[in-house]
């Protein structure tokens, strides 16, 4: 079926976008470049959500991550200087130990993700209604907690950046 | 030709998480570290949505967790940037190696 080949091609394109833009975030010398590449990574992850049939989450991703968080981070970039010494040491003394611990995890994840061959179930494009039912019926109390957390974070951010003499 | 297996999404998510971790450990600029933490949170979101597509249940529990992670990420960025800015006001640097005023 041609649609499935198209989906596979879309997946490959998104994967290349995610991985290269994320590596760009880590390696970019200018912080503004890193922030814009981060927004690009978020856009590609939103594309992944669409592929998985979670269109509502993809819309939230574009609105919150690409819209709000990137703008907030760009404000942070604007208010702070760029330091000349951007990186820590690449190869430190603990590199062998780190590799020793990371390699088994990496091998496990690779084997696991390659052996996990289920495909996405459920009809695509109808995730808003189950999501809303879940949030407001089964997770109503955590939802209220989350809104209080947002309010607390907002007040905390205002208090933290307020000048003392005002 | 079947559709894309869910494990591939988990693999992409793992790669994104590794890259974010490497960024947190390698970069010394506090704002860039915040960005890399966001990348790691996004990798977790991708894995959660991928796993929630595995069962054919009606509810969307994985997506609900993703919504909560959105909330946490927004709060984290707001408070994190506020902390970075107030630390920068006290000591004009965003290099986390030079932020050692609170070290005992």
Strand content of chain B: under 5%
Largest sheet geometry of chain A: none
Question: How much of the residues of chain A is beta strand, in percent?
Answer: under 5%
Mean pLDDT of chain B: 85
**End-to-end separation of chain A:** 67 Å
> Helicity range of the residues of chain A?
over 70%
What's the overall geometry of chain B? Answer: elongated
Q: What structural class do you assign from the helix and strand content of chain B?
A: mainly alpha
Oligomer: heterodimer
3D structure, described in words:
The complex is a heterodimer of chains A (166) and B (104). Chain A is mainly α and 166 residues long. Chain A is built from six helices and no strands. The longest helix of chain A is centred in the first third of the chain and has 26 residues, at 2-27. Chain A starts with a helix and ends in a 5-residue tail after the last helix. The model of chain A has no long low-confidence stretch (mean pLDDT 85). Chain B is 71% helix and 0% strand. Chain B has 104 residues and is mainly alpha-helical. In chain B, helix 1 (6-26) packs antiparallel against helix 2 (30-52) and helix 2 (30-52) packs antiparallel against helix 3. Chain B is elongated and about 55 Å long. The interface between A and B is large, with 84 and 74 residues.
